[in-house]
Amino acid sequence: MKAGLRRAFVWRGDRTDRHYYADVTGWWRRPELLEKLGPALAGLFADRAPTVVLGPESRGCLLGPLVALHLRVGFVEVRKDRAPSCDSDAWLRRTTPPDYQDRHLSLGFRKNLIGGGDRVLFVDDWIETGGQAHAAHHLTRDAGATWLGAATVVDALRSNQVRRQLDVRALLHVGELR
Asked: Which residue, of 8, 38, 101, 128, has the fewest CB within 10 Å?
């Protein structure tokens, strides 16, 4: 699995270029990787029993359903900068701490999608600052649910404290992609 992820991954630009970025789009093109990503990410939390998978727009919405299908549980999309469409459309929302681009995003989901008995597993492709995962953790608590942790493909965190607080587990460390 790790070897396939590394082969399908590319750094774009020069390291000194402000537009230098991690290109993970090769992961989506390879069916043998897609087939294995859901079970591999779910396997990071084999010691837990989630009742729902939570994933942020956009790549968490690609990976989250793969994990949810493998676990036979539902999926909830965390929307970015969305507002309720009417008064009866109740949402839970939180603002993130600064992300990797120093932005503060408003994250949320419809209030009726996660409840007090839920055990939530957060899934995304990459974690660098932990900002979105922190906001999702707070949203989970706001819903009265239990946070199990964050399953990511790549861990690029610089802080062990964030990794411990959020119980981040990953398939790869960013150092394995250099």
From this structure: 101
Region of residue 81 (left: phi > 0; alpha: psi -120 to 50; beta: else): left
CA gyration radius for the chain?
16
Pick the closest to residue 107 from 67, 72, 138, 147 (CA basis). Answer: 138
For residue 154, what are its two tokens?
A: 């790549």
pLDDT in tens, the chain (178 residues): 999 999 999 999 887 887 889 999 999 999 999 999 999 999 999 999 999 999 999 899 999 999 999 999 999 999 998 876 777 789 999 999 887 778 899 999 999 999 999 999 999 999 999 999 999 999 999 999 999 999 999 999 999 999 999 999 999 999 999 8
Q: How far apart are CA 51 and CA 74, in angstroms?
A: 7
Distance between CA atoms of residues 68 and 133, nearest Å: 18
Tokens 């995304």 belong to 124
Q: For the chain, which domains are there?
A: 38-177 (3.40.50.2020)
Contact in structure between 33 and 149 (CB atoms under 8 Å): no
